[in-house]
Amino acid sequence: MAAAAHWRGAVLAAVCLLALASGAAAQTCTKGIFKLDLVSSPTNSDLIARCLTSVQVNLYGNCTVSLTPLNAAGNWVPGIWTGAANVANTYENYVECPRDVGTKIRPVDGTGAATSNAAFIRAAIAKAFEGHVYGFDTSGATPVAKHPLSLDAATPIAFQSGLVTLKRAAGAGGNSLVYAVTQRTVVSTQISSSLVAVSLCSQLPTPATMCRDDGSDPQGVGSACPDGSYGITITKADVDPPEVVKVCGLCPAGSHIVTLGQMAACALSGSYELKAYTKCTSWAQAVPTLQFALEVAGDCSMDIKPITDPACADPTLTTGHPYGDIQMRAYYTTPTKIRSLLETGNPSAPMLAIDASGTGSALTMSFWAASLDPTQGGAAQITAATTCTAPTATVVGGQVAGRPTTAIDACPVGSYYKPDEYCYACPVGSYCPGPGGTAQSGPVGPCPPGKCRTLADLPGWELGPGAAPELDQYNPYLGQSACLTCPVVDPPYTSYSGATSCNVKALDKDCIPSRYGGAGMEFDPVSQACQKCPPGTQRDNTLKKCVLCPSPGMPDQESITGVPGRHCLLCPRGSLALSDPQTAATAVDGQITDGATFCDACPPGFVQDADPLKPCIACAATSGPYSYRTGDATPENNVCVKIPAGYKLKLPTAVGVTPAVVANTEIEMCEKGRVSFWKTDALREPTDQYSCIACADLLPTSTYGHTYAPHEGMVACIPCAAGTIPYSTGKWCSAGTPGSQYTESCVTCPDGYYRDAYSKRPKGTDTQHTGNVECDACSQSYYNNQPGTNCDAAPAGTYTNSTGSFVFTPCPKGTFNSDTAGDSCMPCAAGRFSPTLGSKECKTCPAGTYSKAQSSRCLDCRAGYSSPAGSPACNPW
């Protein structure tokens, strides 16, 4: 038991240790950044200073740190190493400074454990600086610098109010790089309580020249930074309201002008050709016009552009920068030295060196052959150290390599002044006449545009009344003091404002109608040509442009009618003069104004108001509910008409129902069995405009009860013929219900029924009224066995003793009926007989026979008896 307890205790202890270790590894920090800008360095050749003139230090949530270079593009550092004794025998190779975020470095204590201690975070930052330029090997558990740029082992990095100092190791020169803290979001105490943004010039190493917070300018830029430095704007947040100051970094951003003396010869050729010399021909002349414009970026790099000599330009380039590949790229290595770099894309080229020379504004400028290609190590121009040196190079605008001591802000001819950035070469398409007595005296063109033609005497081009010729101008060259005039050609060509060439056909801005067959035209600045006046406008010859047609009107009809000069016309009756997106169906009062572009006809059911400036008006509103109009309105069809007899209006459909029917736009014929007509000019039968009336509903019934409408669109009901009755919805009228049912046809009366031509029965009949719409039954003594005919009297020898008989009944044997229309038969008298059915009379019994009344035969007298003819009995002999 004791052993088990001991084992459990050991396990618990191990678990606790693991938990503690896990907690120790999970270090947390509040993430943030601070930005550093280099303000002091003994030399720009320091590789950390070259790649990290401006850098952002990142602190992450797990306490790791990294560096983000902010100004590294275009800066290069050595990329080949060899022993000191072999340097002279080894070619130079350079690699570009890293541009991306560097490797994350984790702060660790003396045992190698991760920590959030501020001292170890500062050590991690120092390690990030040491390995940033050449990178880290991250294959192991801890990143290892591939080629560290060592810092001082004892105090590699120091923080003081507003500044961070990196002290290089003794073997690396022992110099100190001083950075100004120009931005901070990180919590200072995680790194150093002295980590604050610079807020006072006195915090900087050289406040007199490297800072501006004297209140002379609201942006803290009362005067320019000195040569070899550039402005960094920061905010003093410790005052209310916050103030803005400017710290000067190590390189100036701006442009500077250098004029050159004659260079009679330069032997560099082939891959090492100095193109600025071979193309800019004035450099070899006694008094060159050539100048160099040095445009410096904040990372100390610069573009060197040959200007003022038109021969430098490439005549085959009509757009963009016309100087091709003759411009050069260089950088400040120290505040007084400028050198060029070879690029991997152009490994063999002339190198450049510009240095301050003596005092005043003089510089020395030299060019020589150099190559990154080892195979060129024995090239003649390299082994012979072929060098071209400009005898004189003088700063005439701005400040280069610290010369002159006070920068020149009165820019020379062909350049213009930009505050704090000095003199820029006049761009192509512009002119800079300068110089001036003040810093901002050099105006910038651009070259004026052509007026619309070049010369007045060219055929087909007129100046117009009172106009003066204006020659067109352009400028394809950098650094020019005046624009050039377009050459005289036919047809003439002109230029736009700021043009580099005359490649635009001359324009006719007057657009006189006589030049265009009398058509109304105006100048269109988009197409740069005369265009026909658009719909809804007409030309005003005084203004020389198109003006809106007055309302109500329609657009130019010249192209439609073929009649020259026919422009704004009134819209035809029934149409409105409108402009997109209006329509006649949606236009409301007040929308019909000047400048209409088309005529739109009033839609069905509407007509144009008497006032052409008013919108279309509905038929129901202008002519009443019994009116309509179909189709689009025209001068002949701009009236609402009355619904004709035999028709009705189509009922409007609900929204979304197809096909759609709009109120008062369509009519349709009355259905069979129904009619419509006008009783008077204003009274319609029926009164509902959307329906027709059934014949059975017409009054009085005595007139219309026997009528029908056999066709669509009938204006009156017609009577059924004698022997027929109206047929209502498929039922015999005798079984139907009189009233609103349609009567579309007539049918014959059934057997046993009749109907006279007028459908009237005299009083005293079995119906006891007149105008009955039903057939009457045949009375007693009559019958009818053929539909559609009158009742006939029962013939002699027959009878009918009930109404509605289909047939007559023959008189039984022993009876007779000698008259027609009998309702019964008479019995034969005694001595007479009728032996057959349907006898019209009785026969007399012969002698020797007798009969009783209603006999069908005579009986013989028995023996001993006799009788005369017609005897009712026999008598004895």
UniProtKB/TrEMBL annotation:
Keyword terms: Signal
Keyword presence, Coiled coil: no
Residues making up the signal peptide according to the UniProt record: 1-26
Origin: domain of life: Eukaryota
Classification via PANTHER family: INSULIN-LIKE GROWTH FACTOR BINDING PROTEIN,N-TERMINAL (PTHR46967), SUSHI, VON WILLEBRAND FACTOR TYPE A, EGF AND PENTRAXIN DOMAIN-CONTAINING PROTEIN 1-LIKE (PTHR46967:SF2)
Protein name in the entry: GCC2 and GCC3 domain containing
rRNA processing recorded as keyword: no
SUPFAM superfamilies the UniProt entry points to: Growth factor receptor domain
